[in-house]
Amino acid sequence: MNKHINLLLLAAENLLRHRTKTIVVCLCVIAILSPFITAISISEGIREQSLASVEEGGDLYLTFDEFGRNTSVPLKYLEEIRTIFGVKKAVPRIIGRAYFQNKLVVIVGINKEDIPDSVSCISGRMFENPNEVIIGNELARHFHLRIGDQFSMRGQQRKVFTAAGVFTPDSGIWGASLLFMSFKDAGELFGKPEVATDIQIYSIPGHNSEIATDLYSILMNEPYRLQDKQIIELFVKKGFLLKEGIFTALYVVAFALGIPAILVASGFGLSDRRKEIGIMKATGWNTLEVLELITFEQLLISLLGATIAILLSIFWIRVFNGIFIGQFFIAEITLLPKFTVPSKFLPLPFLLSFFFALLLTMVGSIYSSWRASSVSPVVAMK
Amino acid sequence: MIKAEKLCKLYGAHTKHKVQAVEEVNFTIPKNSFIILKGPSGSGKTTLLNIIGTLDRPTTGKVFIDGEEITTFSDIALSSLRRQKIGFIFQDFNLIPRLPSWENVTYPLIPMGIPVKERFTKARSLLEIMGLEDRITHAPEELSGGQQQRVAIARALVNNPEIIIADEPTSNIDEETSAKLLNILSDLKHKGTTIVVATHDSRFNEIADETFTMKKGRFQ
Ligand SMILES: Nc1ncnc2c1ncn2[C@@H]1O[C@H](COP(=O)(O)OP(=O)(O)OP(=O)(O)O)[C@@H](O)[C@H]1O
Ligand SMILES: [Mg+2]
Question: A172 near A160, Cβ under 8 Å?
Fold first, then answer.
């Protein structure tokens, strides 16, 4: 036991003694790992928020289908849907985008009693009267909007709105550039008073298939599409897997370019090291002990590199809002008003990074050390 | 006891510059004897010491230490033999750069699991014997050649070896320190250590039990 502690301590001391090399290897490890950790954390953050908002939404989503895409549902069926057995609530929504000055904002038209629980006003009040809206806090900040301010927006029609309240959404990203107004106002703004983008159906658990059957009898002759929560969740997850996949592919290329850098860096000062190993062998160290020492050194340096890389990623996301990498996952990032890029740091990517770093530094050092250690000490000391 | 049979070392066997550094050498060094090895530069002294110190393998021939044929030992077995029995003082010191004297001295003890306090105490007492009590935390770069030589000697003694092999240990140190080293070595001999020294220093003649003289890789 003492022996291993001694070797570990010596490894730490050696990293300090070979400072330049340690720094170079660490920098390489950091340069390679921190974009990876940043990307994964952002992607996980967005995924978590998206899933949370799906979770909060309806159990079934009803839309119409046109050219294989979702399109709006006429409202004339709404009352009939509400009478289906097992339907707790049927909520029509309009979701659209319009320019507010030069930024895209997402507009949700929904009756105020149907607004999700995660949306609550931090100042002002809920919209009551026609043409009143509530706005996301980051949106308000971006445009310096205050309660009572009036502004106009153009959809199909130009309309003037009054900011009645400001809210903070729990699931930040989409909420940030969100603007809620009444269903009716949204219909007018977009010039579509007769339709909803979708109807969310909240059901009594276990009734989904019965509801589906009843819906069929109502909408038999219409091109409708019904999706359940699981499917929506699946789409969300798949979307992120795809993006993560593309990112990983791009990253692997960059990574492959980085490997020689690490190898060169770990090979840095190798002839000094070779001589040192020769001296160690000559004074009674055996090959296993030498390799254990080298392994400890790589462990420590990888741990150090991976830790700095993750701290840098946190910094990158918190201070620079995930610049350059955020774009990859949220394409509209430059169109939307500034918002906080979501992130989630999981232990697994960190562990993976650590093992990556370890693998790389090991490849760079263990073979040459073993070579130096397995020749005669005089040869190594030359 | 160290015994060599028909020892040969050929350098550069597959090149144009073949050098037969040691050729057909036979000798026996009894336990607790003091041997000096003489010969002109390039006669093969260092090569021979490296082989009997297990730092290099002969091309052909056998070496026995305490009756065991070490030329057949594995790498790991040789390491533990060096750890247990051999202290080597190199012609060119071979200290580890940027490492304080005391750590250089006790570097061999690290993988033996000896705690740092104990190592420091041991190093200090050895360095005191070498007259380096005020250079304990200096790195080799901050020491003169003679001081480095003494650190290297202290390191060779750190494992209380039964056999000390020294390659021109006095070539870099002054009269006074040489005399001191001579005292230390003769003390060690009285305690039962076997000592083999390659040297031109005639003061060693007085305490030597036997002198081997080499010329062009052969004993004369
Ligand atoms: N690694 C090597 N490769 C090739 N030739 C070598 C090597 N080491 C030593 N030699 C040759 O072997 C011969 C003996 O060298 P060695 O170092 O043993 O001599 P020495 O007696 O110790 O000399 P000195 O008194 O100068 O230290 C020399 O001619 C040298 O050129
Ligand atoms: Mg020599």
Answer: no
Fold designation for B30-59+74-219 = Rossmann fold (3.40.50)
User: Nearest Cβ partner of B111 from A6, A272, A376?
Assistant: A6
- The share of chain A scoring above pLDDT 70, in percent, equals 91
Instruction: Report the distance separating Cα A284 and Cα A269, nearest Å.
Output: 23
User: Mapping DSSP to helix (H, G, I), strand (E, B) and coil, where does residue A205 land?
Assistant: coil
Retrieve residue A233's tokens: 């969740």
B82, A282: Cβ pair inside 8 Å? yes
Whether ligand 1 lies within 6 angstroms of the CB of B19 is answered as yes
**CB contacts < 8 A (A, B):** 78
Nearest CA in chain B to A11: B110
Q: What is the mean pLDDT of residues A195-210?
A: 90
Does residue B218 have its Cβ closer than 6 Å to ligand 1? no
Of B76, B107, B114, the CB nearest to A283: B107
Phi, psi dihedrals of residue A368, rounded to the nearest 5°: -65, -35
- Mean pLDDT lowest among A38-42, A193-197, A244-248, B52-56: A244-248
Residues of A in contact with B155 (CB under 8 A): 283
Task: Give the residue from A209, A182, A23, A188 showing the smallest Cα distance to A111.
Answer: A182
Beta carbon of B15 within 6 Å of any ligand 1 atom: no
Residue A253's contacts (CB-CB under 8 Å, 6 or more residues apart) are none
What is the secondary structure of B160-206 as a DSSP string?
--SEEEEESTTTTS-HHHHHHHHHHHHHHHHTT-EEEEE---TTHHH
B107·A377 Cβ contact <8 A:
no
Phi, psi at residue A157, to the nearest 5°? -115, 155
Domain boundaries, chain A: 2-52+236-380, 73-196
Task: Find out whether the beta carbon of B114 lies less than 6 Å from any atom of ligand 1.
Answer: no
The C-alpha atoms of residue A13 and residue A266 are separated, in whole angstroms, by 17
Answer whether residue A128 shows pLDDT above 80.
yes
β-strand pairing of B34-38 with B86-89: unpaired
Q: Which ligand is nearest to the CA of B215?
A: 1
Write down the mean pLDDT value for chain A: 84
> What's residue A141's pLDDT?
83
- Does residue B28 contact residue A350 with C-beta atoms inside 8 Å? no
- pLDDT tier at A24, thresholds 50, 70, 90: confident
> For residue A324, what pLDDT is reported?
73
Give A28-68 as a DSSP string. Answer: HHHHHHHHHHHHHHHHHHHHHHHHHHHHHS-SEEEEEEETT
The answer to whether B32 and B188 have CB atoms below 8 angstroms apart is no
pTM of the entire predicted model: 0.80
Nearest to B216 by CA among B75, B46, B39: B39
| CB within 8 Å: A281 and B97 | no
Are A208 and A60 a contacting pair, CB within 8 Å?
yes
Share of chain A above pLDDT 90, in %: 26
Cβ distance of A6 and B56 shorter than 8 Å = no
- Between strands B34-38 and B194-198, the pairing is parallel
**Residue from B75, B84, B112, B157 to probe the interface with A (highest A Cβ count within 10 Å):** B75
Judged by a CB distance cut-off of 8 A, whether residue A272 touches chain B is yes
